[in-house]
Design brief:
455 residues; alpha+beta; 8-stranded antiparallel beta sheet; 6-stranded mixed beta sheet; 8 helices; 25 strands; 20% helix; globular
């Protein structure tokens, strides 16, 4: 077939095949302080040839100025001045790189307890989490905390990277003991897949290339696993969800009656002819057209951005949700969720907030905080009264208008929402609708608040 193509056509066909063969993986790193997260990320970027020459030169210069003979690869990700001075990671650092097999979006998250909220931010959209453990220290409290957060966020793949194996003489029993302890703990949280890899980020063992120092290990390197782990899901297996972002009404001579609904498909597949229900109103219609990047198509799937046209002129605006009539979520004004509080100001019972779910924002009141989760042992502290920064707990809310929420374990996209300060628009809390991995403790009944936003 290709023998009849010109060289340019063959090159174009090869480019299409390469593009089709690659996929994208979003992953996050986590671990306790000084476990070597930033060094691992730097080694991964360096050994996969994803570092520009001027970046490497800047790192080498900074390392020499600090009296280090070899380049400190952690400086490739620790970009804040405070991070470089203290030798720690404070904020989430995002890096983008690619290999011939896959594209990657990497979130290097902090290890300190007080930056747990940053790990939640970095891992909230991740399909894989790399949890590092210092081989000398084994599984510590922060390791359990990060495993629990990964489980709460329903991250489908977890890699245990037992780092600094060079400092324990590459001993297999050390690795085996840590891997068994972590695997048992993560499995008890419901983590579906756990892969343990012994590495030395500083020396490069089993990061990109296989280690000659651990011939007892026959599994993949970190990069090999990242390149081959299954990513994404079959959109046809999920009910379609289409949050309306914008209503297009040109009202021109060419399009006097055009009414299109633009947005990004959150999940599932939409087809011309599908019967859909508009939520929260409950009105029904059918899809008559799908515009994808200026081309009319018969079918579209998540996460494509499209414009839909419907058979009926309905009152639809930003924030409404279109869903298949036979698989539409129920609407509710009473919401229970597991949350991670992100702001330094505590979240308290009675607080009035804005709740942002997909493209919809409504007023809400915190009716109850039944429990706060202790991630070290997964116990629940009942009726804490408030959640401080980095706390994870259960929250009961009452909204001013109905919401079409899915459970977070069914859809990470339409099962999550944010709580926002109505005064200044500050993000307060990240929330996951439905149950957490453990049954929440029962808290005291919230006091009734008849002032202000009482729904």
């Amino acid at each position: 077939m290709t023998s009849n193509l010109t060289s340019e056509e063959q090159a174009a066909a090869a480019a299409v095949e390469r593009s089709a063969a690659t996929s994208q993986l979003r992953f996050a790193t986590a671990g306790s302080v000084d476990d070597g997260k930033s060094t691992l990320v730097g080694r991964l970027l360096h050994d996969s040839k994803s570092v520009l020459a001027d970046q490497l030169e800047a790192v080498e210069h900074a390392s020499r100025s600090r009296g280090q003979e070899a380049p400190d690869l952690a400086l490739l990700t620790d970009g804040l001045r405070a991070e470089r001075e203290q030798g720690i990671t404070i904020d989430v650092a995002y890096r983008y790189f690619a290999t011939p097999k896959r594209r990657f979006i990497l979130a290097d998250t902090p290890g300190h307890v007080q930056y747990t909220r940053n790990m939640v931010t970095g891992a909230s959209t991740a399909e894989l989490a790399v949890v590092l453990v210092d081989a000398r220290n084994g599984v510590v409290e922060q390791t359990r905390r990060h495993a629990a957060v990964a489980a709460l966020l329903r991250v489908p793949h977890v890699v245990l990277a037992v780092n600094k194996m060079d400092l324990v003489d590459y001993a297999e029993p050390v690795f085996a003991a840590i891997a068994e302890e972590f695997t048992n703990y993560a499995a008890s949280l419901g983590v579906p897949e756990i892969t343990a890899i012994p590495i030395s980020a500083l020396a490069g063992d089993n990061v990109v290339t296989a280690s000659a120092n651990m011939d007892w290990y026959g599994g993949p390197t970190v990069l090999e696993h990242l390149e081959t782990v299954p990513v994404g899901t079959d959109p046809s297996q999920d009910p379609a969800r289409f949050p309306v972002q914008y209503v297009i009404r040109p009202q021109t001579a060419e399009h006097p009656d055009y009414r299109g609904y633009a947005g990004q498909i959150a999940s599932g597949v939409l087809r011309v002819g599908d019967a859909v229900t508009v939520l929260p109103s409950g009105r029904t219609s059918a899809i008559t057209g799908i515009d994808a990047l200026g081309a009319m198509v018969d079918v579209a799937w998540a996460p494509q951005s499209v414009t839909l046209t419907l058979a009926d002129d309905l009152d639809i605006s930003r924030g409404d949700l279109l869903a298949p009539s036979d698989h539409a979520p129920e609407t509710t004004r009473d919401v229970e969720a597991t949350v991670c509080h992100l702001h330094d100001r505590p979240l308290r019972v009675g607080d009035r907030v804005l709740l942002k779910h997909t493209t919809r924002t409504v007023k809400a009141i915190i009716k109850d905080i039944p429990s706060r989760l202790t991630l070290a042992d997964l116990s629940h502290h009942p009726a804490p009264g408030e959640l401080a920064a980095n706390d994870i707990g259960r929250v009961v809310l009452r909204t001013s208008e109905p919401l079409a929420l899915d459970a977070y374990d069914a859809s990470r996209r339409t099962g999550s929402f944010l709580l926002i300060d109505p005064a200044d628009g500050t993000t307060l809390t990240a929330a996951m609708a439905g149950d957490s991995f453990a049954a929440p403790a029962k808290g005291a009944e919230a006091a009734r608040d008849d002032e202000g936003w009482d729904f």
